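Notes continue from the previous slide.

Worked example: a multi-chain complex. Inputs as given:
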Amino acid sequence: MTRNLEPIAATPFTDRALVAGSLYAAPDRLAQRTTALHRAKVSGANATDTIAALAADADPAPQMIIDVGCGRGTATVRLARQYPSAIILAVDQSPGLLTVVRDRLSAQHRSTALIAADFHHLPLPTASADLALAGFCLYHSPRPRHALAEIARCVRPGGWIIATTKSADSYHDIDALIATSGLDPGADQRPSLYQTFHTGNAEAVAAAAGLTVQRRVDQQHIFEFADLDHLAAYAITCPKYRLPANLTDATSLAAELRRRAPDAGPTTASTVTYLIAQRP
Ligand SMILES: C[S@@+](CC[C@H](N)C(=O)[O-])C[C@H]1O[C@@H](n2cnc3c(N)ncnc32)[C@H](O)[C@@H]1O
């Protein structure tokens, strides 16, 4: 069944060179973006707490866990604490981010297998894991059902996959502000960064990947940016915007925004969706 899955237009989030390069080769952009968003968040449960609780409900004692697209390893570290005797495999295509995960886990006196790999072709045995996470990463795939099917291949029958994503309209008030400022008039017209795997199609994609979705949780997150400096710290990390070439850092972007818009940060929202699925 492929309804709601195609067609898929290219976005910066599915540009392989960008994703493997400036978006994630080094940890700085992801850390700056996460920090700016956390500082702005005024409501909505913590995603790592939610993933940990959903994992505990699904499997109280997994022996092998794969964290696919683990990024800086925030969920990896949490699950390592929650399951002290489990084997944890941290998978990401960015060797730079895997180094951060290694350092964070060794600070907890915990070792992990670090695997630099593309989630469409995992160098892992079939049916080896009890639990796999795919946190906020499948929207980087132009064919997320193939990536999910490959992750499912590595999970034993009856094992669990927790996949998380955001709504396609996430942060659209920021797109609108950037557009009306005149800095990027098309910012609110272009496709969502999350369009290949989002709140609206995630369940259909998981079903097409052969998974049985047992539960889904949708949580509304609200963000209030303090001012244009705060907004610029987030917006400069967002590859959606086509900004003038001289605006390469948050300070110059904030200064330019102040010339064009009232110095008040916008309020915006995102729905975060968690799918708790089983491999049949
Ligand atoms: C937004 S981060 C999410 C990190 C983490 N799961 C979290 O929830 O904080 C997306 C991650 O997906 C990884 N990624 C993107 N495309 C990938 C691919 N084809 N194979 C493996 N990892 C990929 C990136 O390197 C990045 O670390």
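Summary box: Residues 19, 24, 69-71, 74-75, 92-94, 97, 118-119, 135-137, 140 surround S-adenosylmethionine (CB under 6 Å). The chain has one domain: 12-278.
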